[in-house]
Amino acid sequence: MGLAGWWDRHAVPRVIRIACGAPQIMKLRSFVVPMASGRVFELGCGGGINQAFYDSNAVTHFAGIDPGGKLPEYAKAAAVAKGWEADIRDGVGEDIPFGNDIFDSVVCTFTLCSVQDQAQVLREMRRILKPGGQLLFLEHGRAPDAKVAKWQNRIEPFWKPVAGGCHLTRPVTSAVAAGGFQVEPMGAKYVPKTPRPVGWMEWGRAIKTGR
User: Fold this and answer.
1) Helix 12-19, helix 71-82: angle, nearest 10
2) Which of 13, 39, 119, 192 has the fewest CB neighbours in a 10 Å radius?
3) What sign results for the dihedral spanned by CA atoms 172, 89, 12, 35?
């Protein structure tokens, strides 16, 4: 295993848990995640960070995937600590290993930035949702300010290798809408005490309409 492989397998999961567990990020999670109900699927569930925020009385079944490494181990440990059964599998968002129209809620936090094919992942999340089901998203992405976006373009090639393939320049809400969802934006802002090129956040609820 080369240095890059070692970094991706051992260092990146720890970096993600630290960065994505910052107090200001946890506050946003505590607002979005409890809205999930029924049969719930979480994309990028590794780390198990969100599990503390789910309402056990509202969730009837929990499932999730992550590409592998140590992150799914953290998620399984979090499920044990929460005391609920969880179907946690290795997998990627471009090919979610679950059937059509079976989940009431899909939760996606800080994951669309690092997938290989964002549009395909959105299609897959829509596929597994029941008609009328909800996608709850909380993501960072392309900033609305031209100067900040310019810096994101400059930084991204250096950022991605050390941050698990994370993109800084991807759109969020508009991408979800383009994926066939009716979007209900709930908020957007720069996270305090965070450099603006990595601190623009958008969150909301998106409904699967039609089939």
Assistant:
1) 50
2) 192
3) positive
Are 96 and 66 spatial neighbours (Cβ–Cβ below 8 Å)? no
Residue 203 and residue 146 in contact, taking contact as beta carbons nearer than 8 Å: no
Round to whole Å and give the CA distance between 204 and 206: 7
User: What is the spatial distance between Cα 77 and Cα 83, in angstroms, rounded to a whole number?
Assistant: 10
The answer, yes or no, to whether residue 198 has pLDDT greater than 80, is: yes
Over residues 176-197, mean pLDDT: 95
At 136 the pLDDT is 98
- Sign, CA torsion 53/59/63/64: negative
Q: What percent of the chain has pLDDT over 90?
A: 75
How far apart CA 58 and CA 39 sit, in angstroms, is 9
For residue 69, what are the contacts with CB-CB under 8 A and spacing of at least 6?
8, 9, 10, 12, 13, 46
Instruction: Say if residue 16's pLDDT is above 70.
Output: no
